[in-house]
Structures are given as structure tokens and as C-alpha cells.
């Protein structure tokens, strides 16, 4: 903070031109990516990248480690699938419904889980997500083990058919970039600065008069809503919503993406998500299907190495190096 | 057989017994979690995986070396405790002073590694493990048939829990441990080797988990993922009971096991979620947990 005068609202740091440049480069790269890589794979990867960025909004900027974000991702996927398939809603409405559902659910789960602090918070989110998983397993609406299959992608705004993978990819890319910009906006707003203050020193923030719980609840809700947008988009891309998206392994996977890329960095989660998505593909290519059984072990090993050796993640570590040499 | 509310007493008491057994495992696991959290400030996500390893060590001893249940009841926890202490010395130790989320992330990664390796070696299906000869059969109590092995598990785990409580609350060693939890610097200044105590505590905690695993082996099948979902329920139990008191952890464990068993009889659809629902209720009414005070 450069201001010497205290103000009632924390002033947010002005975004640097370098960040806009990085964003423009990322957008340009992703726009031409379908020339080299299958659009279907890319679209799925972008959904996970948005999911990771949404998760990072919570863990990276408010320091709350949710172990249950699969609940919002997977839950919203069910909502989008149900809306698009059973109610025959157009894709944009299905996505709005999914986002709203996840946001509302997030406000509720957030309000409950911040009643306990620190390590209990993670355990409560994990337990609540597991409860959601069992409900999805048993509820008739979600069709148990089968999930909802054959979800139509529909026509965007009634005009553009999304059945083509390439069209779907560019739609997801637009969603992804909008989501990233929204996160950027939130993080660099006075609200985001207050979140960071809470992360750094909660008791200080309380003594400065911030209603810390309200901030945490809203941060949780925003993160959940964006995770829901990602989940809904994934349901449209893969044309299905299944239990896998709600399982605790999915919550673990998104944590891995953010940890590997760099918690509290803008581009880190995106890079992390792409890495984590690419691992099984690479494994398949070098070792065949037998090799991909070791996916869990490799993920676990990345967790251990990240925590022990580079806690700032790929991007965080790079940024720290760059600053040191400058 | 006398039916009660349309449910045969056999089914009712059978499920209650199974609930009590599950409760015993909840109690032993949450006890270990509480002790480890007190000393290391780490919530040990690998607890469920090490519970599974305990069961697999017993299975392995039987099928490879023909070492039976009784020696396994000692060997498996000791082996897992040694493994745990090695992990603590090489990894957890480096996290001292860091934000507690790193402990959770590290142990989560360890759990993935352990479970992944066992899944690759043994597949997802379960391996049977027979109960020891001495405890085969059971007793007819008139209102229910009581399998001897299940009775043994309840009695033995209750004894282990109470022994742990006695050790921590009533002995000199326990007093030293509580002192470490309260103020490690000051305890160190009194000339006690705190890092060694921390390592031993971690070993003891995961040893308890492995012991529960051996006890579980003849009741449930020995599966690589037997601890994965289990640990999440144990986390909920810990949130409900609070990690503040030893007796609270034991009581909450047994109680929730019983409630789960009852739910299985009267409303089986909700059996999977009842512990989580209770957790939500406790959070709304008494957010600090039923026996909540900082350990």
C-alpha cells in the first residue's frame, strides 16, 4: 500500500501493464491453439482451468483451503445437464442456472464452514461435499452411477449451434476469459484488498472494523459460483454430468492444479490445470494404458514435492526468481 | 424372535453391534488424529491410508509368512508406526512453523501415493481375512446371535481407548506430552527432547490407526480404498466431538457409530449421510463442537 493516509476503504493496487500483456498473450495463444490440439480436449482443459482459477480466488486470496469444491463443480454440472436435457433450456440459460445454483450453495456451505476456523474449515468443507456426493449417488434426479448422459449442447442464443467442437471451444474460451477477468477485477478491488488483509492477519482485520465473516462468506460464494460456471460448461462440453465430478478426488485435483501452478497468482492455476490435464495424456503416449494406472501415485508425488520443495508453485517460483534478478 | 416396530430384534441388534464396531474405529482414528494434531499441528490426512496399510500388513503376514492374527495385532501397528515415524522425520518435520494447510496437503499427497500403490498391487477388489480360530463362532443371547469376533472388537478397542486416555491424562509420560502440546519451547527448556517426543507421538497415532485396520480386516474385506471414504467420516466425527478432549473423542466416536447403526435399521437411505447431518446441526448450535476446547 503506497498511501500514507488511512482511508475507510483499502485501496487496491493498480494492475500492471505486464499483467495485461500476459493476459493478451494467453488469450492469443488459446485462440490459435485448436490448430494444433483437439478442440474437445482444449475445451475440457479450459473448464478445469476456470475451475482452478475460481478455487484460487478462495485459497490464494483469502487463505481458506476448501476441500470440497467438487461439490460446486459437480453439482453445477448436474444442474446444467438437467436444464439442457430435461427442461430443454438453451445453453446460456443452463449455464446461468448452474452458476446461480453453485453460488447459492456456496453461500450456504461457506456460512456453515467458517463457523470453525483453520484446519476445521477444511474438514467441514470436505465432509459437506461428501454429503453432497452421497445425495447425488442416491437421488433419482442424478441417476446414480450412470449420471446424466447425452446432454444436448443446443444453440447459443438460439443462433449458433454448439454441436461442433470448435464452436464449443470458442464459446468456452470466451467464458474462461470472462471468468478470469472477473477474478482479476475481484482481486484488485477494495473487496479483494480486504480479503488479502484477512488472509495476512485476521485479528488485525477484525480490529480495523472489517466484518471478516461477511467477507469470507462472499468470497466463498463468488468462488463457488465461478466453479459452478466451470462445471456447467464442462457438462455441456462432455455432454454428461457424472459422480466423478463430485467425488473428493476432484476436490483434491483442483487443489493440486492450484498448488502446482502457484497459489495466489493470476496465471498459476491455469498453467497448473493444463499440466495436470496433460499428465494422463503424456503417460498414455509413453507407457500405454498400463502406465496411466499410476496417475494417483504421480498426483500424490506432485503434492509432496510441491509442499516440500516449492510451495510457491511454478508461476510463483518464476515470479520470485524474476524479481530477484531484476 | 420378537419384532420391534416392525423390525426383528436380530436385525436391530446386529446393526447396533456393527454400529458400535464402526464407532470403535471412529474413536480410535479420531483419538490418533487428536493426539497428532496436538503435537504436530497437522491434520493427518494419511490416517485413513495408514489404517488400510495396517489391515494389509496383517493380510500379508498371514498369506506370505503364515503369521496369524494375534502376532499381527502387535506387528502391524508397530510396522506402521515405524513407517509413520520415518515419514515424520523426513517430511512432516520440515513443515514446522508453516501454515497448517501445508500439513494437510502433504498428508493428502501421501495418502494418494499409498492408496495408489496398493491399488496397483492388489486391484480395487477386497481380500478376505479370516477371524482367528479362537474367536470363530458366537453366542446365542436369545434376542440375537453375537459373533465372538465382533464382541472381541468392541471390548478390545474400548480397552485400547481407555488405556490411551489413562496414559495421556494420568501418567508422567502423558503429562510430558500435554506439556509439549501446551508449550513446546518451555518443555524443551526443561531439557526434554521434544522433537523425539513428536516423532513418537506420530508413530503412536498412526499405530492406533493400523491397530484399527487389523481389527477391521476380518469384518470388512481388506481393500486399498477401505480408509479413503472412512477418513472423511472420521473428520466429521472430529468436528462434532472437537479435538479438545480425549474422552470426548472416544465418546463421540462410539456415539456416532451407534447413531449410524440405528439409521441403517430405521432409514437405511440416510445411513451414509447421518454423521454429516449431525455435523451440520452441531455447527449451527454449538460451533465449537460438543466437547470443544483447544487441545
TrEMBL record, chain A:
TM region positions: 20-51, 58-81, 93-112, 119-136, 167-187, 254-279, 291-310
Example GO molecular function: branched-chain amino acid transmembrane transporter activity
Keyword terms, alphabetized: Cell membrane, Membrane, Transmembrane, Transmembrane helix
Major site of localization recorded for this protein: membrane
Membrane protein topology class: Multi-pass membrane protein
Subcellular location: Cell membrane
Gene Ontology CC terms, in alphabetical order: plasma membrane
Origin superkingdom: Bacteria
InterPro entries attached to this UniProt entry: ABC_transp_permease, LivM-like
Name by which UniProt lists this protein: Amino acid/amide ABC transporter membrane protein 2, HAAT family
UniProtKB/TrEMBL annotation, chain B:
Pfam families in the record: BPD_transp_2
Topology term for the membrane: Multi-pass membrane protein
A Gene Ontology BP annotation from the UniProt entry: amino acid transport
Location(s) in or outside the cell: Cell membrane
Keyword Acetylation part of the UniProt annotation: no
CDD domains attached to this UniProt entry: TM_PBP1_LivH_like
Alphabetical UniProt keywords: Amino-acid transport, Cell membrane, Membrane, Transmembrane, Transmembrane helix, Transport
GO CC entries: plasma membrane
Example GO molecular function: transmembrane transporter activity
Principal place of residence: membrane
Residue ranges of the TM segments: 12-35, 42-62, 68-87, 99-118, 149-168, 197-220, 232-258, 265-285
Family: Belongs to the binding-protein-dependent transport system permease family. LivHM subfamily.
Protein's name according to its UniProt entry: Amino acid/amide ABC transporter membrane protein 1, HAAT family
Amino acid at each position: 500500500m503506497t498511501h500514507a493516509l488511512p482511508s475507510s476503504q483499502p485501496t487496491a493496487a493498480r494492475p500492471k501493464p505486464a499483467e495485461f500483456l500476459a493476459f493478451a498473450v494467453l488469450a492469443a495463444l488459446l485462440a490459435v491453439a485448436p490448430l494444433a490440439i483437439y478442440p474437445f480436449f482444449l475445451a475440457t482443459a479450459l473448464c478445469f482451468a476456470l475451475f482452478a482459477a475460481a478455487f484460487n480466488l478462495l485459497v490464494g486470496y483469502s487463505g481458506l483451503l476448501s476441500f470440497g469444491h467438487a461439490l460446486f463443480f459437480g453439482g453445477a454440472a448436474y444442474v446444467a445437464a438437467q436444464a439442457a436435457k430435461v427442461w430443454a433450456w438453451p445453453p446460456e440459460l443452463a449455464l446461468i442456472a448452474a452458476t446461480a445454483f453453485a453460488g447459492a450453495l456456496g453461500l450456504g456451505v461457506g456460512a456453515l464452514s467458517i463457523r470453525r476456523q483453520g484446519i476445521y474449515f477444511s474438514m467441514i468443507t470436505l465432509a459437506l461435499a461428501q454429503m453432497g456426493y452421497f445425495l447425488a449417488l442416491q437421488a433419482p434426479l442424478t441417476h446414480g452411477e450412470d449420471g446424466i448422459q447425452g446432454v444436448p449442447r443446443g444453440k447459443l442464443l438460439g443462433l449458433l449451434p454448439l454441436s461442433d467442437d470448435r464452436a464449443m471451444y470458442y464459446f468456452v474460451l470466451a467464458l474462461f476469459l470472462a471468468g478470469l477477468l472477473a477474478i482479476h477485477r475481484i482481486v484488485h478491488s477494495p473487496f479483494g484488498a480486504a480479503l488479502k488483509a484477512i488472509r495476512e492477519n485476521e485479528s488485525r482485520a477484525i480490529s480495523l472494523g472489517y466484518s471478516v465473516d461477511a467477507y469470507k462468506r462472499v468470497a466463498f460464494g463468488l468462488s463457488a459460483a465461478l466453479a459452478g460456471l466451470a462445471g456447467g460448461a464442462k457438462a455441456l462440453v462432455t455432454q454428461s454430468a457424472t459422480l466423478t465430478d463430485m467425488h473428493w478426488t476432484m476436490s483434491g485435483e483442483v487443489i493440486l492444479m492450484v498448488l502446482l501452478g502457484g497459489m495466489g497468482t493470476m496465471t498459476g492455476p491455469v498453467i497448473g490445470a493444463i499440466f495436470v490435464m496433460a499428465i494422463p495424456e503424456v503417460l498414455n503416449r509413453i507407457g500405454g494404458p498400463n502406465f496411466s494406472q499410476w496417475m494417483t501415485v504421480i498426483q500424490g508425488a506432485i503434492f509432496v514435492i510441491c509442499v516440500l520443495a516449492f510451495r510457491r508453485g511454478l508461476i510463483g517460483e518464476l515470479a520470485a526468481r524474476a524479481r530477484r534478478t531484476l | 424372535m420378537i419384532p420391534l416396530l416392525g423390525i426383528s430384534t436380530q436385525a436391530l441388534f446386529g446393526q447396533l453391534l456393527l454400529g458400535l464396531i464402526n464407532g470403535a474405529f471412529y474413536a480410535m482414528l479420531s483419538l490418533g488424529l487428536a493426539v497428532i494434531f496436538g503435537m504436530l499441528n497437522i491434520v493427518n490426512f494419511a490416517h485413513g491410508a495408514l489404517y488400510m496399510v495396517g489391515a494389509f500388513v496383517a493380510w500379508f503376514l498371514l498369506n506370505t509368512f503364515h503369521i496369524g492374527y494375534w502376532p499381527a495385532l502387535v506387528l502391524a501397528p508397530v510396522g506402521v508406526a515405524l513407517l509413520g515415524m520415518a515419514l515424520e522425520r523426513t517430511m512432516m518435520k520440515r513443515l514446522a512453523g508453516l501454515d497448517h494447510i501445508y500439513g494437510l496437503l502433504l498428508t493428502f499427497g501421501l495418502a494418494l501415493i499409498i492408496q495408489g500403490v496398493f491399488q496397483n498391487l492388489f486391484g480395487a477388489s477386497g481380500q478376505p481375512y479370516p477371524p482367528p480360530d479362537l474367536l470363530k463362532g458366537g453366542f446365542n443371547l436369545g434376542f440375537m446371535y453375537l459373533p465372538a469376533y465382533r464382541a472381541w472388537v468392541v471390548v478390545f478397542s474400548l480397552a485400547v481407548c481407555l488405556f490411551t486416555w489413562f496414559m495421556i491424562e494420568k501418567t508422567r509420560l502423558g503429562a510430558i506430552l500435554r506439556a509439549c502440546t501446551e508449550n513446546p519451547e518451555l518443555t524443551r527448556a526443561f531439557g526434554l527432547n521434544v522433537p523425539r517426543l513428536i516423532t513418537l507421538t506420530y508413530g503412536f497415532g498412526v499405530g492406533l490407526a493400523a491397530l484399527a485396520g487389523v481389527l477391521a480386516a476380518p469384518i470388512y474385506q481388506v481393500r486399498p480404498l477401505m480408509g479413503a471414504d472412512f477418513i472423511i467420516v472420521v473428520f466429521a466425527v472430529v468436528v462434532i466431538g472437537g479435538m479438545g478432549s480425549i474422552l470426548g473423542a472416544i465418546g463421540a466416536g462410539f456415539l456416532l457409530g451407534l447413531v449410524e447403526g440405528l439409521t441403517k435399521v430405521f432409514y437405511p437411505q440416510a445411513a451414509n449421510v447421518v454423521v454429516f447431518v449431525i455435523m451440520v446441526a452441531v455447527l449451527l448450535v454449538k460451533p465449537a463442537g460438543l466437547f470443544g476446547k483447544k487441545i
